[in-house]
């Protein structure tokens, strides 16, 4: 690594380009791009761009050796770290989830093919029950909101609802979301092939979603997908359209086949 660090790639005279500089630039670019993806579409992106602008200005000030402005901006940016953590708390949580998901082992082909085969078969059957329930509720315009936990539990959502702990079936899901049911208002949480809770309250996203006429159910689905790796399924009570939210993004008005493929792609 030391040899790579000091090995020169090109000498411009006033600046020497090293291999380690290219690696440094590549990693920094990747991290900034991931942060931009997490903030895109929210009001936080404007704050993030503002912080970058101040940092770029401070870099110029330091290069010009303007000591008074350098001292002022240094203190401002020092306090700005605390303000950054407070303002970007949801986004930082999502970024840390992105870093800590550890998909490599779960996505290993040999693991999926031999060790996790039985679990996969059971999950496929459970997903078919969920998709069938979504399809029937869409046909009858029954509003629904279902959260599928992936890797990290969403206990902060489960604790707001009514515990159930039942096997997944399309008839049970349909009965939960029927208007006359006492549990229809809120979200159902599913984890490890079982319905864990119903009538759960979800956090609502602050960013704009498309189409802009979508209501609180869709905004809540996007909100919890920003704060966890859960996959959220939505049935619109007004139009009967089915949608899916994952990683803060919403796929609106999908077909049952598209819904099933999207769930499998996100969960596996």
Q: How many independent structural domains?
A: 2
What is the approximate shape? elongated
Q: Please give the CATH class of the largest domain.
A: Alpha Beta
Say what the CATH topology of the largest domain is: YojJ-like (1
Task: Write up what this structure looks like.
With 268 residues, this protein is of the alpha+beta class. The protein folds into two domains: 2-100, no CATH class; 109-267, YojJ-like (1 (3-Layer(aba) Sandwich), CATH 3.40.1700.10. It contains twelve helices and nine strands. The protein has helices spanning 2-6, 19-39, 44-63, 67-87, 89-100, 103-106, 109-115, 117-139, 155-158, 170-177, 216-227, 256-267, and strands spanning 8-11, 16-18, 144-148, 162-167, 187-191, 194-200, 231-235, 242-246, 249-254. The chain has a seven-stranded mixed sheet, with helices on both faces. A two-stranded antiparallel ribbon has the order 1-2. Helix 8 crosses helix 10 (170-177) and helix 8 (117-139) packs antiparallel against helix 12 (256-267). The chain is elongated, with a radius of gyration of 24 Å.
Question: Any chance you could write out the topology, listing elements then pairs?
Answer:
Layout: H1 2-6, E1 8-11, E2 16-18, H2 19-39, H3 44-63, H4 67-87, H5 89-100, H6 103-106, H7 109-115, H8 117-139, E3 144-148, H9 155-158, E4 162-167, H10 170-177, E5 187-191, E6 194-200, H11 216-227, E7 231-235, E8 242-246, E9 249-254, H12 256-267
Parallel strand pairs: 3-5
Antiparallel strand pairs: 1-2, 3-7, 4-6, 5-6, 7-8, 8-9
